[in-house]
Amino acid sequence: xPARQHYIFKLNYLFAxxxxxxxxxxxxxxxxxxxERIREGWNYDVFLSFRGPDVKVAFLSHLYSALKRxxxxxxxDEELSRGAEIRLNLLEAIESSKILVxxxxxxxxxxxxxxxxxxxxxYCRRSRSEQLVLPIFYDIDPxxxxxxxxxxxxxxxxHETRFPLDKVQRxxxxxxxxxxxxGYVWNGQRSEAKLIEDITRDIxxxxxxxxLHLPSYHVGIRSRVQHILPLLSIGSDDVQVIGIGGMGGIxxxxxxxxVYNEVSHHFEGTSFLADFRKYSKNPEGKVHLKKKLxxxxxKRYDITLNSIDHxxxxxxxxxxxxxIFDDVDDLSHFTSLGIEMSWFSRGSRIIITSxxxxxLEQLGAxxxxxxxxxxxxxCGLCPDIGLSELTGRCLIEVQDNKLMMHDLIRxxxxxxxxxxxxxxxxKRSRLWDADDVIDVLTxxxxxxxxxxxxxxxxxxxxxxLDAKALSNMRELRLLQLNRVQLKGSYANFPKGxxxxxxxxxxxxxxxxxxxxxxxxxxxxxxxxxxxxxxAGEPWYLRKLKYLDLSNSFYLIExxxxxxxxxxxxxxxxxxxxxxxxxxxxxxxxxxLVFVNLNGCTELEDLPSEFYRLKSLETLNLSGCSKLKKxxxxxxxxxxxxxxLADDAGIKEVPASIIQLKKLKNLSLGGxxxxxxxxxxxxCRLPVSFNGLSxxxxxxxxxxxxxxxxxxxxxxxLSCLEDLDxxxxxxxxxxxxxxxxPKLLILRLDNCSELRSMYSLPRSLKFLHATxxxxxxxxxDLSECSTLQGLFLSNCTNLIQTPGLDRLKxxxxxxxxxxxxIPVSFRESSPSSRSIELRILTPND
Length: 844
Fold this sequence. Notes:
This protein has about 850 residues and is α/β, with parallel strands linked by helices. The strands form seven sheets. It has an 18-stranded parallel β-sheet. A five-stranded parallel β-sheet has the order 2-1-3-4-5, with helices on both faces. Strands 7-8-9-6-10 form a five-stranded parallel β-sheet, with helices on both faces. Helix 9 (about 220-230) crosses helix 10 and helix 12 (about 285-300) packs across helix 13. It is globular.
């Protein structure tokens, strides 16, 4: 590689090569961020929650085996005897699983560990809509779980004598919520094998998705897809093999996924076989590929080994299919799979991606597309171009306060690092490969050349190493140790760290000898901390700007902030034992801009000094169920733009809130379930909203609001764009929404007592009023001249929808189960419009 390129990529920003995809950045002041992290994938398909003695030997082992045979990656806690505390890896596994299966048996509620798991499962379901919870009622009546009868009620009564009542109440709520969900019931009247078959098929269908996810930072993907489409000759009756070739990192897989999304509807069956190279190297992987191929094509999941080859041959001859083999690198591996091109029916298309162009020709690719490569001069970049030029060329992207980079940049950076010291890992500036890292640490071969090190142990494993192994890495600045325990003395630990990420930190407080005066970022999710540091041994961290102790379930109190004088962001999400925010937080009045206390269920109040935080822009108090009030000092927090307090215990919002002239997002929603309002508290709103002139989003869902409790000057919110009033007991909404000139979204779902509305604004784009079962008439919809989406499903008494047939811009109309609504508007709708219209009745 030319020496020029060594300098091109030797940018400080490329520290991110140590973390494959992203690294927290300190963005310049004024840039917004979302309060939650976005997870791009899941560690597990399924998490199984169960009480071992009830179901472990028979039912659960068979269920687990069935899921495993179908290629469903399932987390199963193999250890029946647990320690004195629920293990953190269980909670991590819950949060990182797509489907959460709860096997409810007669004695499930007698296990406090099961109840802790269930509480966290239902918390995840409420806070993350993409996670699914599937209950299985094994030899127990669902009504006993819902209403706490029989063995369930007896177990809860015993718990009330041993645990705080609020804890048991949370367990009761979790049991009620899970029993309200659709699931499976086994009472001995049917075969367990048939039950397991049904559950497995259901899970497979829920995991299945015909749309393949594309990264948001794809490079010129649309133009590349347009180059490939003519090569496919869609409509031609012959079988064609098309290749996508070229070096690694140029986007072959992304292009193949985009093509799949574009043309899959033309075929009778489709399959995308990702990571072919990885799976084709061993017999088990080859079986997985064949089963996935056949399952995808047939949409069947009861595939047996002895039927695969025959079924592939016979079924392919009868269906026009699209199959993509991604990342093929070896001809023998492909041919050993036993799939012949002659099996495919007329009109089928096979797309193969590979780095080897000759291999594509050997596999019969008559047409090969090679995406345009980045030029060999590093895209013409100069050493001083920085982030802006890389961003302009779509090679990196700042997204949600993270630096995302294209694989090509990552791989080139890693290549340069390895080239510096090909044989001696301990002399490389960055270490990211787990095998290399463990080799260096176990041999104590690290040197002062190492500036960044990352080691991620995968659950349920926990790596145990010697702290002394890092003592020679005196220039270490970035350190990531997730689920790693360092034993021994920290006296000679590197003192120059700027960024520390240590998920699952094992100690109850940070050892004094671990002092890191230069730290700017500390990320310690799932730590075992009780206190940040031991009494009398505080650190003075003058440079620390970002502190994240989220999911530190045993943390009792925050640090003394006088020792963190420049802190800008504080995250304590789901710190369930937190009872004290240190009064010294007031010293951060000109520094702190972001505080997230979401899910701190034991926190009862905030110190008066908290309201001195005049620089605070975002405050999240959602889920702080014991926090009963906010003080009048709230109005002094003049920089506040976002205040979130959903599912909090706040009884009344102080009148001083109208002094928050910069407030844009206000959320005071209550708790709810899928079957209507389930409000635990009623939050009294301020008498007036006058003064909140910048408010764009207001969420007051499930707050027990009636018609007369809406403030009189509600309509003074002239900038309001998104209004959420779901689940409130309105009867006749007399509010003149037409006087909200910028309102785009109005949410009234689950207002089961609502009968009518006075008006709607002309600016409205989306009206959500699902499950308004008493609603009889909507306002004149033709007044909403820009309406794009209308959602009125299950409004069973809806009779009049004036103006519905005159909507010009609408694209989605959902009126399932609205049996009394006329549908004559369909006949008068212009045929040129493309509308997603859904009208279902019980007979459908």
